[in-house]
Specification:
This protein has about 200 residues and is mainly α. The chain has helices at about 1-35, 50-60, 90-95, 100-125, 135-140, 140-145, 150-155, 175-195, and strands at about 40, 65-70, 75-80. A hairpin with a 7-residue loop joins strand 2 (about 65-70) and strand 3. The relative contact order is 0.05. It comes from Sitta europaea (Eurasian nuthatch).
Length: about 200
């Protein structure tokens, strides 16, 4: 009995701490929302339960939140205003433990684009490798000729009646609703007979 009472007291204390922590986080989040020049806020490292409470508070407030950090002791939450939701690149930077620098990211993106353009230009300059023709029609031209395929394509027509059944061929002329009503009526009849 004494141990159960001690356990209950501990649980109540834990619950009270969680409620207090949630209230504190709600205050901090509302301050963050009102802070105009602050698109994101990084919170101190916290344990798993506290992080889940903060994520919940952020979600209720209509914010985006992510956890970063490798080990349990240094893991922290970052909260973003919806209009400043982070890009994939920004999230990757935080996951690597780096600070996000939009100017540096833009520079990196420009360099990547330049590299891609140069690669493309180099590919255009290099001659095609010698070898068999890539087009199977060229390979079999001596068998099919060059006009036969075009002639076949011109004469091909879609079967416009595909999937349509003429009314004369239908055995059941009822609408779906009529058929369903009949099925329901039979079911009701069966249930009435069973009772």
């Amino acid at each position: 009995p004494e141990q159960a009472a001690r356990m209950k007291k501990l649980q109540e204390q834990e619950k009270r701490q969680k409620v207090e922590f949630r209230k504190r986080m709600e205050q901090e989040v509302s301050q963050f929302i009102q802070a105009t020049g602050e698109p994101r806020r990084r919170f101190q490292p916290m344990n798993k339960i506290e992080r889940s409470i903060l994520h919940d508070v952020a979600e209720v407030a209509g914010l985006t939140s992510f956890s970063f950090g490798d080990d349990e002791d240094s893991r922290y939450v970052m909260v973003f205003k919806k209009e400043f939701a982070p890009s994939d690149e920004e999230l990757e930077a935080y996951r690597r433990g780096e600070e996000w620098d939009p100017a540096r990211a833009e520079e990196r993106r420009r360099l990547r684009e330049l590299a891609a353009q140069q690669e493309e230009a180099e590919l255009e300059c290099t001659p095609a490798p010698p070898g068999p023709p890539n087009d199977y029609k060229d390979k079999y031209r001596h068998l099919i000729g060059s006009e036969s395929a075009k002639a076949a394509a011109r004469t091909m027509e879609a079967n416009k009646a595909y999937g349509c059944v003429p009314v004369a061929n239908k055995r059941d002329t009822r609408s779906i609703e009529e058929a369903m009503n009949e099925i329901r009526a039979k079911k009701r009849l069966r249930q009435a007979e069973d009772e």
